[in-house]
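Q: My collaborator sent me two sequences in one message, no labels, and asked for predicted structures for both. Can we handle them in order? The first one she listed is below.
A: Yes, handling them in the order given. First sequence, followed by its structure tokens:
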Amino acid sequence: MKLINRDIRWRYRRQVKALCMLFFLLAFPAATGGADVALRIGTRVPSVVISGVNGAPFRIPEDLSGKVFALHFWQIGCSSCKLEIPAMDILYKKYQRKGLEILAVNVGQKKEVVRSFVPELGVTYPILIDPEEKASRLFGVTDVPRTYVIDRRGVVRYRIFGGVTPEMLKKLILSLL
């Protein structure tokens, strides 16, 4: 009889623990890495302020009202990023007049290091710095490169995990311009 009661109590405890864990996961998604859920395709971009390499604040999406824009999250040392950043500059120069904006957001690296590296990139679009990864977490960025393509109303239309070819990025952007 004692053995049966122990078995029932053990099962009951497992069920209670499972329900508590489920409650925690649903109630606190950001604490479990669920911030990525906030940027599903079809959702609006969260409002955030990120500093540029020159120190000027850039307000997303307010400073981009009415524009199609790509947010590219990157780091120094990322080989895919080194290929994508210059390729994005070609698109930026070609389609800026049609309402395209591209922002490259450096994730988690020191401002001084990023500032000294930016001239090597040779790009004409804004480079932003997120050394404490506050904005990156808000956007659900867990690794780089990651790119979001946002329409003129501030709605995420595409999200790209990992590298993207210049041709594919052009195709996605042109579908929104």
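Q: And the one she listed second?
A: Here it is, processed independently of the first:
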Amino acid sequence: MTTIAAIQGKNFAVVGFDSMVTEDNGRFFTLPSDMPKVVKDENCLFGASGDLRLINLLSISNFDKPMESFKGRALDVWVGGIFIPELREVLEEGLPSEKEGSYEGTIIAVFNGVIYEVGPNYEWIRSTNGLYALGSGGSYALGNLQAAEPGIYKNSLLAEQAVRRAVKAAIKYDYRSRGPVRALTVHAPA
């Protein structure tokens, strides 16, 4: 399955993730570094837990990018009004679904340094505490992040160390997650 952990900083977002994929039949694969669970494109980043096809589609789709000046409410409106409809169109075309209008998994999206968690019914949320964790190892990673020093939010290098540590902790307890652990950072536009 997956472990993805993320920290929302003041002017940055850091996302850490494992490298293992587990099929329903129990087979597992370690993803090569050029095919990660989280992909970055300029000031946007996408990651997914659940169906691997989600990240396949997210990595090859050409979504509109928000204007660099979009912050706060303007960015939220762009996510809800532009990104979510585009995402829905891409996923409904590319994923087989037993339940019309939904998908299996959770998506983490970062735009202009701001993290959004997108659920299987295309609902989105931003966390007030700035901590996110997805996948089968997500609760282990979230607990690890919660126990970390509050200062990790102030510095992107400390935040990257914290998400790596959180994913490694999840790997220790979740047999469906495995290294190597990777991390990506997106800074807010100046």
